[in-house]
Amino acid sequence: AKKGGNPGKLGRSWSFKRKARFAQRLAPELVSRGALKWNVSVVDGGVERPCIMAISPTRIVIVELKTKTMMYMLPCKAVLGWTSSTDSLKLYYDTGEVIVMKRDTTSAEDDTTGDIDDIVKRLTCTSDGCETQEIRVIKNQQGKLGFHIQFQGIVGDVTEHGPAWAAGLRPSSRLLEVRGTLVAHLEHEQLIAHLKGKDSIVVVA
Questions:
Q1: Using the 8-state DSSP alphabet, how is residue 112 labeled?
Q2: How many other CB atoms sit within 10 Å of the CB of residue 181?
Q3: Could you give the CA distance from residue 118 to residue 131 in angstroms, rounded to a whole number?
Q4: CA dist., res. 195 & res. 1, Å (int)
Q5: How far is residue 8's CA from residue 153's CA, in Å, rounded to a whole number?
Q6: What confidence score (pLDDT) does residue 27 get?
Q7: What's the first-to-final CA gap in the chain, in angstroms?
């Protein structure tokens, strides 16, 4: 989901030249036409499951090591964005679903141990997604946040210089989480209730 405005948030528009310069700084193997793989631990129902994650230019596949079963297979174009740290990655895709994974340091194969930074660089090369941003919006004196929300968390009109605008939210941004809850798991009416609930909200967009 692309958007204009603040260049630091999900769906920002990358110019061709900027992406080309970024790609030139990557290690050659990260722009490979073949699939690259890493050992990761996928968090599923509170349980960490050791897996192999493979990313080709068109597809992402995650296979559980113990059972040899495929947990996820999705096209790279379905990636919306990600929230990354040194040891973990939240990968948002499709309608806003999320895959939570951690760096797996238990593998004897050091060359495939899940390096989150390398996974993020590979995702940058193969998808239109980018790093998400956590945004805190504080209601004004009239109790307004200063923006309208559409289907699937797409931000509509944003009042210029209002609370949401000041926090960095722009039209066409996509809300992925509101106060720790996935927008994909909320009906539109529930999402509105979450947004109206308190004097301030924290969203991932």
A1: G
A2: 12
A3: 14
A4: 21
A5: 18
A6: 74
A7: 11
- Identify whether the C-beta of residue 179 lies closer than 8 Å to the C-beta of residue 153: no
112 or 65, which is more confident: 65
Q: Per-residue pLDDT for 23 more than 70?
A: no
Q: Mean pLDDT throughout 27-42?
A: 85
What amino acid occupies position 56?
S
Q: Which residues on neighbouring strands pair with residue 89, listed in sequence order? A: 84, 101
DSSP SS3 for 51: strand
Q: What residues have CB less than 8 Å from 116, skipping those under 6 apart?
A: 84, 85, 86, 87, 88, 89, 103
Question: Model pTM?
Answer: 0.81
The identity of residue 94, as a single letter, is D
Question: What is residue 30's predicted lDDT score, i.e. its pLDDT?
Answer: 72
Q: Any alpha helices (H) in the chain, and if so which ranges? A: 16-24, 116-126, 163-167, 188-196
